[in-house]
Amino acid sequence: MNNKEFNQSADKSFRVTTSGDMEVSTYLEIAKEIGGEKPVATGEAVSGVETEAVVVIDFGSQYSLLIARQIRELHVYCELVSHETPWEKIAQLNPRGIVLSGGPASVYEHDSPKIPAYVFEKELPVLGICYGMQAMTYQLGGLVEKSLKREYGHAVLHISNMDIPLLAGLPEAITVWMSHSDKIDKMPPGFKSLAYTENTPVAVMGNSKNMYGIQFHPEVVHTPQGKQILENFVYKICGCHGNWTIANFINDSIEKIKQQVGDGKVINAISGGVDSSVVATLIHKAIGKQLTCIFVNNGLLRREEAERTLNVFRLNLGMNVIYVDATERFLERLKGIVDPEQKRKSIGEEFIKVFEEEASKIGEVGFLGQGTLYPDVIESTSSANKASVKIKTHHNVGGLPSDMTFKLLEPLRYLFKDEARQVGIELGLPEEMVWRQPFPGPGLAIRIIGEVTPEKLEILRSADWIVMDEIKKAKLYRQLWQSFAILTDVKSVGVMSDYRTYGYLVALRAVTSNDAMTADWARLPYDLLARISNRIVNEVALVNRVVYDITSKPPSTIEWE
Ligand code: XMP
Fold first, then answer.
1. H helices within 108-263, ranges in order?
2. Is residue 180 flagged as an active site residue?
3. Catalytic annotation on 130?
4. CA of 559 to the centre of ligand 1 (A)
5. Which CATH superfamily does the domain covering 19-237 fall into?
6. Per-residue model confidence as pLDDT tens digits over 3-18
């Protein structure tokens, strides 16, 4: 959510688009590389009622994942696959239709991605979007040409044929979002033009075999009736039944977890974060006491966080939870460390040690539960080959010892974050936990600039408590990606009751974001900022100044360290 949307939606509930809740389980990421089980075969994600899916073939558009999300919101299971994925894998999903995504390439570039042959051979309904439409045109014998003018932004689409199912229910003219520089010069044999814009004579085309091409992007919010077009495609053209529901997903996953685990044991690290909480609850629902959760309190949590988390899992949900208060160990390990990466590394290593010690007491454990989500899966597949510069070590801060050979149990790996949240709600997790803002694995340690000490932790906890309290009272907690306090190592002079003070500087950070990759500083109301500042200097000893961070990411990052 950007600031404009944030301001407009103060009261509306807000759905986060991708996973950003990197929590305790990220330490265990490395387990994937050490004998972690391969993902459950695609296509197993929905069954029980009737397996069906629409498959999006990804040509690299920044909106590809959005197409899948939109289709899932229509209760049709949808997966994003690479254009190199073989038909055998796709067939397991029982596809009822195929969407060809947009992409940055031009069909005439010699290495541009091509539509796989099965798309034309299997006679399934096809919807080519932008590049998908152009590739379809090119491969089926039509002509694509460079536009003299790149068309980017809003355009008015005039529908010339109102009777076709793809455009059913739409008025004669609608606003659509365009982003292309190539356009269709000559349609392939058998295709008819169904709609046009001022600059694009063929903006929608179709043939009698249920193959359609659209030049604009129905998946983005800037095409207000785009959802109707996708709905027409999946229901009227593909004949889907709409059986992708959270309840079906839960039933299905429970069955699968039971089968996969048999009478084995599963361990799961919990932190109170959304992903690990939902995955633990789902696994618990499936296999009950065969699951043991390990909750390591690293002493870097926020006020009352450990108690609340423990209450939910142990008392409310009746789970086996091993709770380890390792505060002393972590603080000892952090003594004298000021470098942020060193903090992360030490916390990660210490966590693994504690986790391993506890896991070894349980006896033979076959599986490790992890809250991996679909965007993480897509991200790790698509970024595997990309060279990127390390900014911060979010993942793999420790590394599990190589003799830990659990199989991975990742029942959420095909879910978007908002779907995982719905699973949590259905399974009875408290709203407060399901809607928790992301909190970093190294916790408050990376919000204390410089050395972490018990005194500084206490100061930060008190300040953070006030921030959270006021943000929640202002009903902004869910709209913000994150909102928190930072204890800087700056001290400044102040005056209180006619006395000079020399106290800490606390910084406030509140950002809007969809995925934590980019973020904008939130335009919080001045009176809210005033209340927070006032309360912090009055209620938190040793703090006499509060500042608000007004930088976005990039160039800053969300956390200060
Ligand atoms: P930055 O500061 O890089 O943060 O803009 C992006 C998102 O990641 C979270 N974050 C972390 N999460 N371990 C985690 O599990 C880490 O070391 C870590 N560092 C940053 C941050 O809270 C934000 O949501």
1. 117-121, 131-139, 226-231, 246-261
2. no
3. yes
4. 6
5. Class I glutamine amidotransferase (GATase) domain (3.40.50.880)
6. 555 544 433 332 223 3
